[in-house]
Amino acid sequence: MRHGKKFNHLGRTASHRSALLSNMACSLIEHKRINTTVAKAKALRVYVEPLLTKAKEDTTHNRRIVFSYLQNKEAVAELFRTVAPKIAERNGGYTRIIKTGFRPGDAADTALIELVDFNELYNPNAEEKKATRRSRRATTAKKEAVVAEAPKVEEKVEEPKAEAADSTEEKTEE
Asked: Is residue 153's pLDDT more than 50?
């Protein structure tokens, strides 16, 4: 019977399950996507999404709460530095689970779990927004400015020569 069974125990003890989910969450944050079974992916989603929500507000308290779950300084730093700014506007649904078929050894149903904002295939607009044309305009504007400045420099150089020639002509006329 499943009376009062709120989550999937994954056939493990409580300490083993928490260690498993902590390690998978660290791997997900570090690599932005991981391959696992569907059951583990669904359990990981429930585990990691509240941590991602906490990471949106960078306070010492939130960092300590997230560290108590992850137990990995590098993962916490990555979460607060790179992941949190990307998910800042999103209200939830930070992960995506894509079923990928069956594992050859034991025919377990496998899935790919990934952070939604870090997938370039499904979010082509994110790349276009980053690579705006402003940078191109700025470089062309700089090139045009350099080209425009170059004749001015030459004109300035030519003016003293012209003055020198005028002064020699004036001396010959006198």
From this structure: no
- Please compute, for residue 102, the number of CA atoms within 13 A of its CA located in the half-sphere on the CB side: 5
pTM given for the model:
0.69
Q: Distance between CA 100 and CA 110 in Å, rounded?
A: 6
Q: Average pLDDT of 1-10?
A: 89
* Listed residue (7, 16, 18, 24) closest to 114, CA to CA: 24
| Angle between helix 38-55 and helix 60-70 axes, rounded to 10 deg | 160
Q: pLDDT tens, 18-60? A: 999 999 999 999 999 999 999 999 999 999 999 999 999 999 9
Q: Could you give the 3-state DSSP secondary structure of residue 110?
A: strand
Q: Rounded to whole angstroms, how far apart are CA atoms 100 and 38? A: 9
Cα gap 145→139, rounded to integer Å = 10
Look up residue 113 and give its two tokens.
């779990």
| Residue matched to tokens 């929500």 | 53
Tokens representing 75 are 């993962």
Q: Residue 73's closest CA among 20, 113, 29?
A: 29
Q: What is residue 96's DSSP assignment?
A: E
User: 166 pLDDT band (50/70/90 cuts)?
Assistant: low
Distance, in Å, from the CA atom of 148 to the CA atom of 157, rounded to the nearest integer, reads 15
